Amino acid sequence: MNAEAAGRVGETVLDVRDLAKHYPLTRGVVLRKQVGSVKAVDTVSFALRKGETLGIVGESGCGKSTVAKLLVGLEKPSGGQILYRGEDITRLSGRALKAVRRNIQMVFQDPYTSLNPRMTVGDIIGEPYDIHPEVAPKGDRRRKVQELLDVVGLNPEYINRYPHQFSGGQRQRIGIARGLALRPEVIVADEPVSALDVSVQAQVVNLLERLQDEFDLSYVFIAHDLSVVRHISDRVAVMYLGRFAEVGTEDEIYGHPTHPYTQALLSAVPVPDPEARDRRDRILLSGDVPSPADPPSGCRFRTRCWKARERCALEVPPLDVPEGFEGVAGPARHASACHFAEERQVVPGG
Amino acid sequence: MTAEGTRQEDGSGGGVLLDVRELKVEFRTRDGVAHAVNGVNYRVSAGETLAVLGESGSGKSVTAQAVLGILDTPPGHVTGGEILFHGRDLLRMGAEERRRIRGTRLAMIFQDALSALNPVLSVGTQLGEMFEVHRGMSRKEARGCAAELMDRVRIPAARSRVGDYPHQFSGGMRQRIMIAMALALGPDLIIADEPTTALDVTVQAQVMDLLAELRREYAMGLVLITHDLGVVADVADRIAVMYAGRIVETAPVHDLYRAPAHPYTRGLLDSIPRLDQKGRELYAIKGLPPSLTAIPPGCPFHPRCPKAQDVCRTDRPPLYDVAPGRASACHFWEETISERGDRR
């Protein structure tokens, strides 16, 4: 919303179509044979525009981190396309792939394990230049790294220090600086603040927002913390068992959710206001998420859904404006993969 | 429901279960002495939920470990204070007596159920062990009790699952088993250390609800250790905020959220992303929590505090009584509490 209001959301940068990742399940050591597959990501589609932040929320095991890995090329998709400025990067290899990868960079969740403890901060942030020397000639690297340290709010004189000399929040800044080194267009951030303490989390969220304005970045921001995602995102996708359940602007999803899973998820988030304790409309789901190796037929959420009927087991609900909402004007009209979609406000003041 | 502050006179009567007084814990490490807990006071009464809120390194878990007597010694050492449980000092008891209290009267729920449970024993055996050791039951009777407990924490088809191993349960179910284990012998007080942090939101809500319901049913006291201001607002009666090994503010939960009396509490509340702040910069507490080997003199929060004056750099603020049942360790609590909560 804020981005659109500022008029800086532009052309489509990433166009993801029917993206899928299936991991084979095998049995036997010598005579290995495939007995099934884990459908970690199954036909996920979205578009990401210039300067925009798409938030992806979902519970553990829903496939959101796999989406991140597919986008930056750490995993090969089993199907679908990832179009970066119109070019399908899943088909590229060699030099062409390398050139594209420069533009899509990643920030990892855990600032403790994603930085090599034996490398200095300067080497960590400068390493992308070894792979893409055209961005920074050798003699210029030190200055570039120091610039990056300054940009993410660290003292440029720390260039020769090692990761263990920094706190969690500072390490995450180092990870962000590394992600910025090649001046990418898209940054995929997988749970970038969830390992941080509350007081430090806000600092890093602010940094990410400032960098977005400064470098006109597009973010895919993956997190399980719904309030952080709401704060930073222009659009939000809610993911469940490898598929998107509902996609819309931040206001559409949080203020006017129509998918039962989104409603349950939002209602389960503890609200930091004791006055709201009794006013809240809580939806308690029973049971656990089914295994992605053997997902339910039809709608994947139906085994935990209080609205499920026969149709839900038979037909996969499409991710589209649901039946009955076509004529509706206003924020309730957005893509929601439910046969029986209904608006229900669950966030107080939403 | 009691609502007395942490520094009231007599602590023996009035349903006070646990009374921690001036507790000090330090860790002797190669890099020096880490002062993890520096004079913590809190008390919990029967039927009350006290939330101990703090960030990593604030000393909230170490305090709990000292209460339970499960501190890693060495390097950790309790160097001062008293831990009165039903009026008797746990620190002066013999190891055997403490062991008997632990589990029967005082129980703990850990954050990570997978590593807290033994992977090579079935959950029925682990739950039953409590009854065999503390109640002298036969193995068969104990297993029956285990199944009953699993049923009570709403594990579906409990009877057929007593023989299952921890890895065969989901995260939420394992945490239920942890709760069952803590409840087994009907304790008066449960200390839960981040019981839902490792769980997904929808499962977290289920487990938190179960815990709150069982606490009511058995009229137990509950100490809930957490960093999540949302969870606290949902279940706690009273709250104690910790920073650098000290309690900086304690208050009934409604009062604290309405008008915090310590700048650190205010900073935490303000740094939560909220609806009306969309598109604006989040408030962020500047700087970092101090290293426990070098806690700043005076008020330990002063290097990060927007209100810090000269006095904060030199004099450590005591816990000032703010109102009945409220205390704040800030020289300028009056100013802090009267500020409007929504914007700075």
Provide keyphrases for this structure.
heterodimer; A: about 350 residues; alpha/beta; Rossmann fold; 4-stranded antiparallel sheet; disordered N terminus; B: about 350 residues; 2 domains; 8-stranded mixed sheet; 13 helices; 12 strands; about 35% helix; globular
Short note summarizing the structure:
Chain A is of the alpha/beta class and 350 residues long.
Q: Bin the helical content of chain A.
A: 25-40%
Order of helices and strands of chain B: EEEHEEHEHHHHHEHEHEEHHHEEH
Q: Give the N-to-C terminal Cα separation of chain B.
A: 34 Å
How many helical stretches of chain B?
A: 13
Structural class by helix and strand composition of chain B: alpha/beta
Shape, principal axes of CA atoms of chain B: globular
CATH class of one domain in chain A: Alpha Beta
* Strand arrangement in the largest pleated sheet of chain A: 6-7-8-3-9-10-11
Largest interface: A-B, 47 and 46 residues
Within CATH, the superfamily of one domain in chain A carries the name: P-loop containing nucleotide triphosphate hydrolases
User: How confident is the prediction overall: mean pLDDT of chain A?
Assistant: 88
Approximate shape of chain A: globular
The percentage of residues in β strands of chain B lies in: 15-25%
CATH superfamily caption of the largest domain in chain B: P-loop containing nucleotide triphosphate hydrolases
Estimate percent helicity of chain B.
25-40%
- The radius of gyration over CA of chain B amounts to 21 Å
Number of strands of chain B: 12
**Unreliable spans of chain A:** 1-7
The CATH topology of the largest domain in chain B is: Rossmann fold
Q: What's the arrangement of strands in the largest beta sheet of chain B?
A: 6-7-8-3-9-10-12-11
Radius of gyration of chain A: 21 Å
Overall description:
- The complex is a heterodimer of chains A (350) and B (344).
- Chain A is globular and about 65 Å long.
- Chain A has a domain at 2-103 and 184-258: 3-Layer(aba) Sandwich (Rossmann fold), CATH 3.40.50.300.
- In chain A, helix 7 (198-215) links the parallel strand 7 and strand 8.
- In chain A, strands 6-7-8-3-9-10-11 form a seven-stranded mixed sheet, sandwiched between helices. In chain A, strands 2-1-4-5 form a four-stranded antiparallel sheet.
- The model of chain A is unreliable at 1-7 (pLDDT under 50).
- Chain A contains eleven helices and eleven strands.
- With 350 residues, chain A is of the alpha/beta class.
- Chain B has 344 residues and is of the alpha/beta class.
- Chain B has two domains: 16-105 and 188-196 and 217-338, 3-Layer(aba) Sandwich (Rossmann fold), CATH 3.40.50; 113-186.
- In chain B, 34% of the residues lie in helices and 23% in strands.
- Chain B has helices at 60-68, 95-104, 113-116, 123-135, 139-152, 158-161, 171-183, 201-218, 229-235, 253-258, 263-270, 310-314, 333-338; strands at 16-29, 32-45, 49-53, 76-85, 88-89, 106-109, 189-193, 221-226, 238-243, 246-252, 320-323, 326-328.
- Chain B has an eight-stranded mixed sheet with strand order 6-7-8-3-9-10-12-11, with helices on both faces. A four-stranded antiparallel sheet of chain B has the order 2-1-4-5, covered by helices on one side.
- Chain B is globular, with a radius of gyration of 21 Å.
- The two termini of chain B are 34 Å apart.
- The model of chain B is unreliable at 1-13 (pLDDT under 50).
- The chains are: A alpha/beta (350), B alpha/beta (344).
- At the A-B interface, helix 7, helix 8 and helix 10 of A face helix 8, helix 9, helix 10 and helix 11 of B.
